Amino acid sequence: MSETKSSVLESEVEKFTIYASKWWESKKKTKFLLQTIEEVRIPLVKSGLTDAGLIKEANQDKSNMFEGIKILDVGSGGGRMAEPLAIMGADVTGVDPTKEMVDVAKEHLKTHENLKIDYICDTIENYSVNNKEKFDAVTIFDVTQHVKDVHQLLKASVDCLKPGGRVFITTWNKTFIAWFFLIFLFEWLLGIFPRGAHDFKYFISPDKISGYLEEFNCKTVEVKGFWYNLWNKKWSFTWYTGVFYTMQAIKEA
Ligand SMILES: C[S@@+](CC[C@H](N)C(=O)[O-])C[C@H]1O[C@@H](n2cnc3c(N)ncnc32)[C@H](O)[C@@H]1O
After folding, report:
1. How many Å lie between the centroid of ligand 1 and the Cα of residue 16?
2. Any ligand 1 atom below 6 A from CB of 128
3. Which domains does the chain have, with CATH numbers?
4. Tens digits of per-residue pLDDT, 62-88?
5. Would the ipTM clear 0.90, i.e. be above it?
6. Which run of H or E residues covers position 44?
7. I need a labelling partner for 212 at 20 to 30 A (CA). Which of 99, 114, 166, 251 fits?
8. Whether the CB of 75 sits within 6 Å of ligand 1
């Protein structure tokens, strides 16, 4: 197996090693952030896979509608996203270089029966070189703000995608308002994240990601913001992409 230059920031792996054991803890303070899985990420993937014609017609209203779809979850962490995707029927491969995170994900998987998830402890750059398997979709959820080279991470991720396949991304924009909410408010004032968990230097705009994806033959088809409504306590999509955003792109043939 060859070792490839990677986008991994050792300092981030050290942080995730410390956070790993608490990954599945449902704290009151962070519960609203976990709601993004149900209220933002799953609807995003569902709409993209439906547009791509990958969800079989007979399965459209079924709880296992992702059956037969192969998804690569890049930076799968403790499996918080890989599991719901697999519960919906997908055949998931999760790749993450933080060993403690992968151990937590594997342990948590034991709480389910028959979910099709394969967790691999590696960087996406190594994985893309050493594995020839191609996927229908690649999910990169809250990973780009934790790597030193998004260009490299995206290249490796897209290399694992079939032509016509979809890339789904969620991350945070590089704006003053994103810094204000995510670092000043969430880390320093409210303690929602541990202090120092994020570095503004690695935040990135949707235009930059879109430009990189274009280099790798992927056309961005959607960029949407999402926001938490304090009245109904739910996340919803919005036109405003200045803080949290999702992206969807198609790999052209
Ligand atoms: C904030 S966590 C996100 C975990 C998961 N996607 C979620 O949303 O729950 C970021 C993860 O990206 C992983 N990561 C960092 N660099 C990576 C790389 N080059 N390839 C794959 N994963 C990487 C880290 O180890 C960490 O577990």
Report:
1. 8
2. no
3. 10-251 (3.40.50.150)
4. 999 999 999 999 999 999 999 999 999
5. yes
6. helix 42-51
7. 99
8. yes
